[in-house]
Amino acid sequence: DVQLVESGGGTVQAGGSLRLSCRASTYPACSHFKSWYRQLPGKEREFVAMLDTLAGGESTRYAESVEGRFTISPGNDKKLWYLQMDSLKPGDTAVYYCKIHAACWSQEYWGQGTQVTVSV
User: Fold this and answer.
1) How distant is the alpha carbon of residue 16 from its chain centre?
2) 38, 44, 47, 48 alpha-carbon torsion, rounded to 10°
3) Pairwise CA distance, residues 50 & 95, whole Å
4) CB of 31 within 8 A of CB of 102?
5) Which of 52, 42, 5 is nearest to 24 (CA)?
6) Residue 34 near residue 74 (C-beta atoms within 8 A)
7) DSSP at 26
8) CA 92, CA 14: separation in Å to the nearest integer?
9) Nearest CA among 28, 69, 20 for reference residue 52
């Protein structure tokens, strides 16, 4: 199995920034998606951002609610990726999860989640 470990969550005031990290225990030898999701209190888990390595490139996609404020990026280590969160709002308060899904793997894998709290 593949293990994902998130870090970097915490409490920040509105307007502040945080950077989340996700490290995978192994790296897929095929095209794959590295993603971030979040679960707001009392809500379903929702998509936040994705990094697509298809065809050797790295394209990104974002939820409309975070576009222009959040940035997903790869780390120097291929097993590592980040979510830079700027201009945070109280509505961004959630548990954030990273996920990896590879074409050559039979399942997708999730991290355990990290809490982000944005205070007014």
Assistant:
1) 18
2) -30
3) 17
4) yes
5) 5
6) yes
7) S
8) 9
9) 28
The string of pLDDT tens digits covering residues 46-104 is 999 999 887 566 789 999 999 999 999 999 888 999 999 999 999 999 999 999 999 89
Tokens of 12: 């920040």
DSSP 42-111: TS-EEEEEEEE-GGG--EEEE-TTTTTTEEEEE-SSTTEEEEEE-S--GGG-EEEEEEEEETTSSS-EEB
Contact criterion met (CB below 8 Å) for 72 and 119: no
Reported as type and span, the H/E element at residue 119 is strand 114-119
Evaluate whether 62 touches 48 at the Cβ level (below 8 Å): yes
